[in-house]
Amino acid sequence: MKVLKFGGTSVGSAESINTLIDILKRESQAEQKPVFVLSAMSGITNLLAETAEQAALGESFTGRLADLEIRHFDAVKKLVDIHNQNPLLTRLKIYFNELEDLFQGVLTLRELTPKTRDLILSYGEKCSALMVSRIALQSVPGALFVDASTLVKTDSSFGQAKVITQLTDLLIQEFYRENTDKTLIVTGFIASDDAGNITTLGRGGSDYTAALFGAALNAEAIEIWTDVNGMMTADPRIVKKAFSLTDVTYTEAMELSYFGAKVIYPPTMIPAFLKQIPIVIKNTFEPEFEGTVISGKAQPSGHPIKGISSINQISVINLTGSGMVGKAGFSGRLFSLLAREQINVILITQSSSEHTITFAVHPADAPKAKALIEQEFELELLAKKLEAAHIEDDLAVLAVVGENMKQTPGMSGKLFHALGRNGVNVRAIAQGSSEYNISVIISANALSKALNAVHDAFFTELNKTLHAFCLGTGNIGKTLFKQLYNHSKQLREKNKIQVKIAGISNSRKMTFNAEGLSLQNWEQNLNEKGEAANIDEFFDRMVGMNLPNCVFVDNTASPLPVAFYERAFKANISVVTCNKLANSSGYAQYRNFKDTAIQRGVDFFYETNVGAGLPIISTLKNLMVSGDHVQRMEAILSGTISFIFNNFKGDASFHDVVKMAQEAGYTEPDPRDDLRGTDFMRKVLILSRDSGYPMEASDIQIENILPQSCLDAQTVPDFYAALKAEDAYFNELKERAEREKKVLRYIGKLENGKAVISLQMVNENHPFYMMSGADNIIAFTTDRYYERPMVVKGPGAGAEVTAAGVFADLINVGAN
Ligand code: ADP
Ligand code: ASP
Ligand code: MG
């Protein structure tokens, strides 16, 4: 059997009810009778709520009550045979009289409790289900009106009551068993508590009623009939290009609806998921549309994400306090307090510095949340361990959702690019712990533009074919080819991007094919059939083949290819490189590359020059193009040095930690190549230049970590001996730091055009205090991110992530 739920618009007028009755007639022929769940007529729940609220303020309710009557009577008069109208009109009139009494009570007392409100709202569903059951009775014998408040049992949290599932299941099963010959027309949304008081399941809750019935009766499907073609890639009222989805998973539907896709109420997914019953979203006004299926598994959709949703009005509360926030127990206290007071926290982001918590709530809850915090943390506020809570209004959340998102490179880059290019300022970011969504908080008035821009970025068919010429077949080159090979089908089918590798060369051999070289056995082909390598010739051939969307990919660390970049740009070929030498040699060269690429309208991407696959270069770029100004950058950009200082604590000697780093494969053969900071310096130089300073390498001041004796050592074993001899020096540094409750960090900093890399001691309030493994981290303090910096942190080395960064750069070529 099936459960079918019809939303407000499906019972909104005589015409829609007629359409609904057709579906009802057809479906109730089934051997096992379906159950029909109905919402109130569209707009009626709002009207009831508004009337009650106004009555509590002393306003008359008679006009609104009359409107309510007319909406229902009108439908009855149009749809019920004239001789049979009276009994129904009388029953409805009884409801309206009861409502009148309730409104009068509210008006007299000037008080509207959540309990009374629920009781008043329940009439919307009672009227519509009663009315439709009687209309149905004319053509469907056995149509029976069911007030679900006697079957769905909840606790007494009025407004959004919690269902007592076991009891509800039993009651529904028993009732269905007793009425197998009937066609049940059930009220959605309403329930009752232990004492029989009417409760409601939260706005939009009729969907949930349907799922409760579906789960209790082990339905084969739960159909949600509404006014649009299923679940769409975005709210079609805001995004005109939104299109219907064939199928989504329970998780995706949950995330999309949680972040505002009103088409289905989030809790609906739970009973369905537990029983693995598919939910099908159908369109009453286009019944032949097959519907969106929500189930445990979804077919690949052809796009990297499933949809974009949004909550158009939220408020954000910031809590700051170095003595309090971030300490164990604080968040627990804060969020249990809010939960206890039924304040729904939509989203939380904790800054990396760990002494700020930002969370989003509905605007109506914000003042109450602030007051509660002031009460609960009065002592901490007095002691200045916590600063006064700060509310920001007129914000919105935009969330990009999809279960396959995490396997697709470049998703957040695409999102921020679309927002940045359109001048939408991102106030905060929360990557869902589920990895099924990335949500950003933006200004509410930018929402429509943002939704459309992001929708375009993710769903507009690009249909582009890139022709890549790749130099270098070391670790990164190999990994890139492997990733491209594994992902090419998906890239083509889902992203409509085809990457053809038209040329490959290493220092020994080179090979070409305008149709694309095989990525499965490229290595064998190159070795066996390749011509002798010649870099001049490689470039000539690349230019000569004159292929569209041509990209030169430099996966080497050699100075040789760099000499050809300018030629590439001048031939309208984009360059993607992980080779740091191009941007960290003379400034004039750096400038020339950038200017030439812009002049020729081609791309020059080098995300992996800093922090491998981490979005550092692109974040900086997006900040700059959206008109922000970088005041200060602080960073740890050497994975090796990061690893060493993260482990230099407790009893470990510096000598032992360096040795360990080398044994774990984190260092160059001579660890001094890392410890001298040259590589770190190159990255700082590139970032300085990208933030607008025409610097040379010599402008960057590097404070040596190593004493002279270690630098002077002739061989690596000599170096280790010298390092051991300096144990006392390093121990003294470590102990001093520990005494002051600090840690040692080798930090690069750019401020006011001055760049310094130095060994520093930082305390627990510093964003770099908590670091692990060989992570890279960078904190941008800008005109917009001035209270707390924007931080990017994560693994900043390794072939997989670097190749993924090159991959993302490559497929982004020509994206704008
Ligand atoms: P019902 O009254 O049938 O329960 P709702 O108004 O609750 O209908 O939900 C349907 C509406 O949800 C649509 O009219 C549409 O404007 C809105 N909506 C928001 N996001 C989406 C989305 N991603 N897909 C489809 N509809 C959406
Ligand atoms: N009528 C209720 C509301 O408007 C429940 C629903 O439509 O699902 O919220
Ligand atoms: Mg709804």
Automatic annotation (TrEMBL):
Gene Ontology process terms (BP): homoserine biosynthetic process; lysine biosynthetic process via diaminopimelate; methionine biosynthetic process; threonine biosynthetic process
Gene Ontology molecular function, alphabetical: aspartate kinase activity; ATP binding; homoserine dehydrogenase activity; metal ion binding; NADP binding
Pathway as given in its UniProt record: Amino-acid biosynthesis; L-threonine biosynthesis; L-threonine from L-aspartate: step 3/5; Amino-acid biosynthesis; L-lysine biosynthesis via DAP pathway; (S)-tetrahydrodipicolinate from L-aspartate: step 1/4; Amino-acid biosynthesis; L-methionine biosynthesis via de novo pathway; L-homoserine from L-aspartate: step 3/3; Amino-acid biosynthesis; L-threonine biosynthesis; L-threonine from L-aspartate: step 1/5
PROSITE patterns associated with the record: ACT, ASPARTOKINASE, HOMOSER_DHGENASE
Catalytic activity, reaction form: L-homoserine + NADP(+) = L-aspartate 4-semialdehyde + NADPH + H(+); L-aspartate + ATP = 4-phospho-L-aspartate + ADP; L-homoserine + NAD(+) = L-aspartate 4-semialdehyde + NADH + H(+)
Listed Pfam families: AA_kinase, ACT_9, Homoserine_dh, NAD_binding_3
Transmembrane regions listed in the UniProt entry: none
EC number: 1.1.1.3, 2.7.2.4
PANTHER family xrefs: HOMOSERINE DEHYDROGENASE, PTHR43070
Quaternary structure, from the entry: Homotetramer.
Job of this protein: Bifunctional aspartate kinase and homoserine dehydrogenase that catalyzes the first and the third steps toward the synthesis of lysine, methionine and threonine from aspartate.
Designated name of the protein: Bifunctional aspartate kinase/homoserine dehydrogenase I
